[in-house]
C-alpha cells in the first residue's frame, strides 16, 4: 500500500514548528508495511490544500492529512474535504453533545462557532478523539483500480497520535495489501563514506527494488541503513540477515553498533565490562569528550574525570607534560598527546587516559599542521605503571564546530579499537 | 518571491530522521521575506524526484532541493537535475583539485567514483561547500514571467546550512521582489516563560496582524521573536523598534543578545573586554561548559582550561576541595561548588573560576536534593587572592540530557550576571 502525507499549517512552512507529525506517521506507517512515498506540507490556504489533496488522492491508495481541524478561522480542512468529495457537512448529535459537555466541564458557555467541530461530511466515518475536541475523519472508496483511503487528523501531536493509534492503524491492519518492510541500521565510525564505498560498493549487485542499502553520514560516522520489503516477512528478514552478514564480514570492525546505539554508550559498556576507568585530557575538544561520556546515565561507573588543558601551562602544571616535549614538537603533536593521556590517567587515577590536541580552526593552521589536524593520545596503566602508550594523527575538516565533534568521535573510537582490535 | 522546498531522502519518509532541513530553510527564507508556499519530501527515487522538481519549478520562482548529492549510488540528485535541464555534467578542475587535496591531506588515494563530486551541470554555478566535499549548485533562468531560481544543496545539515548562508542567501538578497518583513529576536536567559509572560503579557495589546511577538523556548533560554510586516519597511522597522524598547525597559537585564548571538559568545566577549580569564570546575556538566566556551573561535584568549571532577577524589586531589566540606555538605552543595570554583581559578591560574555540581538524573536524586538540583559556584581572584566567592542553587528538570544543557547555561549566565549586574 502506497501512502502520501499532507501536513497542513503555516507554522510548518516558516520553520516555527518542526514537522514531527510527518516523522511520527512515517515511522508508524512503515512499521506496519505501508510505503510512504511522498510527504507534502502546505499552509492554511484552501487552494493549496485542495490542489495537493487532489494530487495525492489520484496517486496514492492512502492519504493522511494533519492540521486545520480546530475551531479557528484558519482551520479549513474539513470544509475543503467536504467540497472536494461533494459530501455536505452534517451535524453529528453525539459529537455536539461531547463538545457541549467539554465546555460545561470547564464552566464556560459554548461559543457558537465551535458547533462546526461537531460536523461530519456525509459518507465519512468519524474517528474518536480521546484527547481533544476535534474529530478525526475516515473515508474509504472502492473503485476500478482498488480501494482509496483517506484519514483526516488534527495537527496537535497528542490528538493526532491518539486518533491514529485507535482509529487509523486498526483500519489499515485489516487491509491485506500491506507490504512487510524490515529495517536495520548498522553504525560505522572511523571510516569515510568513500572508503566504505570501495569496500562494499559492489554489493549494489545484491540490491533491487525490494532490498536497499543507504549511506547516511553523521558526526559519529556513516550509518548504513538496510531495508527489505516484500509480501513475505520471513523472506525480507532473511535478505536483511544475509546482507548484514556480508557487510560484517567485510567491514565488521568499523561497525560499533546498530539502531539507536551511540558511540559513547558502546564505549561506556566496553569500559564497564573490562572494569576499566577512564580520564580525559582535552585540548582541541575543550570538554566535549567528557560531555559525551557523561551524557550516558551511570557513566560515573567508569568516568573518573578529566582536565581541559587549553593553555600550555595547564598541560605542564596539571597534567605534567614536559616543557621540553612541548618545545620540541609543539602542542599539537603525537608526543604531547601521549604525555597528556599518560598524565590524565596517572594524576586522576584511572586505568586509561585519552587525549586530544589539534587545530579546530578557523585560525591556528600552518603548512605543516593545517586546520583539521588532530592528535589523539592513549595511555593504559597496570599496577600504577603505563603499559601501553599510543597515538594517531588524523586530518579532518575546515569547520570548527564540525571538527570538535569529529575530534571527540575519533578519541572515543580510539578507546573502542584499543579494547576490541 | 514564492519558494518550494524539495527535501530528498528515504530516511525522512520512514521517520528515521526528522526533517529539520525543511524547518531550518523555512525559517531562514521567511526571515529575508521569501514566502515558502510548499514543502515536499520524496525518497531516493529518480522518477519521484523528477516529477516533484518539475512541479515545483513550474509553480514557484525559487526551488531549493536538499539531499542526494554525495558520492554513493543512492545520491542521484545531480544527474536528475542535469537531465531535467538538459545540462550535461562537466568536470570542474578546481573542484576536482579540491577533492584530490581532500584525500591527499588524509594520505589516501582518491577513489575513482568520487570524481563525480567534481562535476557541475553546464550553465550552473557552483556554491562552495566549506564543510564537506559535495558541491552546491545554483541555476538562474530568465523567462517571460520573470526569473526562475534553483538551489541544489546537500542533505547533511551542516553542509546545507553553510552553503545556504554563504551561497544562497547572498544571491537571494540581491533580488528585489522580497516582501517587507522585519524580524528581530531578543534572547533572554535565566527567566522562565511563565514569568516573562507575567512581566510582558499585557503587551499583547500592541500586537495585530502586522506586528507579532512569539515566545520560543530553547536550552539557552526563551527567545522572543518580534515580527513586523507591511508595505512600508520604515513603518515596520519603527514598530519593531518601539516594541523592542518597551521590552528592554521591562526585562532588559535578562536579554543577553539578539539574533544569532550565543550565550557563550556574549560571555566570551565580556571576558575579553574585562581582560578576565576563566577556568572551569565541572561535575554535573561533565565538560559541557568547556565545550561551549571553546566552540567560539578565539576562546583561548580568555579560556585557560578546566577540571572535570566527576569523582570526589578528583575534587579533592586536583581542585583542592576539602574532604571535610564534602563530608559535611555532600558533593552537591553550595559550599563544595564554591570550593571547586576557587580551586579551579587558583590551580589553573585564572581570574575567575566557575563550577557546577548537581544531579542530572535519572538516578541519584533524594528528597532533599531531587534530580534537577544544581549548585553553581563562582570565584574571582585579584592579586592571587579570592575576593569574590558566591554560589546559587537552582531546581531544573527531570531529563538528563536537557539538564546538562540547562546546567551549563546557568553557569555561563552566572558569569554574565557577575560582570553586568
UniProtKB/TrEMBL annotation, chains A, B:
Pfam families hit by this protein: CinA (PF02464), CinA_KH (PF18146), MoCF_biosynth (PF00994)
Residue ranges annotated for the MoaB/Mog domain, each copy included: 4-175
Record keywords, A-Z: Coiled coil
InterPro entries per UniProt: CinA, CinA-like_C, CinA_C, CinA_KH, Competence-induced_CinA, MoaB/Mog-like_dom_sf, MoaB/Mog_dom
Bilayer-spanning residue ranges: none
This protein's record includes keyword Coiled coil: yes
Coiled-coil region: 226-253
Highest taxon above the source species: Bacteria
PANTHER family, sorted: NICOTINAMIDE-NUCLEOTIDE AMIDOHYDROLASE PNCC, NMN AMIDOHYDROLASE-LIKE PROTEIN YFAY
Family affiliation: Belongs to the CinA family.
Protein name: CinA-like protein
Organism name: Longibacter salinarum
Amino acid at each position: 500500500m502506497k501512502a502520501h502525507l499532507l501536513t497542513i499549517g503555516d507554522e510548518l512552512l516558516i520553520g516555527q514548528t518542526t514537522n514531527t507529525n510527518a516523522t511520527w506517521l512515517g515511522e508508524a506507517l512503515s512499521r506496519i508495511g505501508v510505503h510512504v512515498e511522498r510527504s507534502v506540507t502546505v499552509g492554511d490556504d484552501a487552494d493549496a490544500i485542495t490542489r495537493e489533496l487532489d494530487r495525492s488522492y489520484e496517486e496514492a491508495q492512502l492519504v493522511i492529512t494533519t492540521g486545520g481541524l480546530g475551531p479557528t478561522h484558519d482551520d479549513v480542512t474539513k470544509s475543503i474535504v467536504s467540497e472536494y468529495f461533494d459530501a455536505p457537512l452534517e451535524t453529528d448529535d453525539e459529537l455536539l453533545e461531547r463538545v457541549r459537555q467539554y465546555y460545561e466541564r470547564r464552566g464556560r458557555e459554548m461559543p457558537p462557532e465551535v458547533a462546526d467541530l461537531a460536523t461530519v461530511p456525509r459518507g465519512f466515518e468519524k474517528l474518536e478523539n480521546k484527547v481533544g475536541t476535534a474529530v478525526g475523519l475516515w473515508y474509504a472508496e472502492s473503485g476500478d483500480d482498488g480501494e482509496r483511503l483517506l484519514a483526516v487528523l488534527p495537527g496537535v501531536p497528542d490528538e493526532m497520535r491518539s486518533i491514529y493509534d485507535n482509529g487509523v492503524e486498526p483500519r489499515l491492519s485489516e487491509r491485506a495489501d500491506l507490504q512487510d518492510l524490515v529495517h536495520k541500521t548498522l553504525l560505522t565510525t572511523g571510516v569515510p563514506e568513500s572508503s566504505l564505498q570501495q569496500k562494499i560498493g559492489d554489493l549494489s549487485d545484491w540490491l533491487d527494488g525490494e532490498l536497499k542499502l543507504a549511506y547516511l553520514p553523521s558526526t559519529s560516522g556513516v550509518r548504513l541503513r538496510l531495508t527489505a520489503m516484500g509480501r513475505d516477512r520471513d523472506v525480507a528478514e532473511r535478505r536483511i540477515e544475509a546482507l548484514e552478514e556480508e557487510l560484517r564480514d567485510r567491514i565488521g570492525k568499523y561497525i560499533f553498533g546498530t539502531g539507536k546505539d551511540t558511540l559513547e554508550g558502546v564505549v561506556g559498556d566496553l569500559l564497564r565490562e573490562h572494569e576499566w576507568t577512564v580520564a580525559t585530557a582535552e585540548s582541541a575538544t575543550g570538554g566535549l569528550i567528557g560531555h559525551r561520556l557523561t551524557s550516558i546515565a551511570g557513566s560515573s561507573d567508569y568516568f573518573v574525570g578529566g582536565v581541559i588543558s587549553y593553555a600550555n601551562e595547564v598541560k605542564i602544571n596539571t597534567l605534567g607534560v614536559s616543557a621540553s616535549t612541548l618545545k620540541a614538537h609543539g602542542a599539537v603533536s603525537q608526543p604531547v598527546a601521549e604525555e597528556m593521556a599518560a598524565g590524565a590517567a596517572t594524576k586522576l587515577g584511572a586505568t586509561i587516559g585519552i587525549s586530544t590536541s589539534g587545530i579546530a580552526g578557523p585560525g591556528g593552521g600552518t603548512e605543516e599542521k593545517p586546520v583539521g589536524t588532530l592528535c589523539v593520545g592513549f595511555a593504559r596503566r597496570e599496577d600504577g605503571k603505563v603499559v601501553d602508550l599510543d597515538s594517531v594523527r588524523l586530518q579532518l575538516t575546515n569547520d570548527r564546530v564540525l571538527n570538535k565533534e569529529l575530534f571527540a568521535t575519533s578519541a572515543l573510537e580510539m578507546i573502542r579499537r584499543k579494547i576490541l582490535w
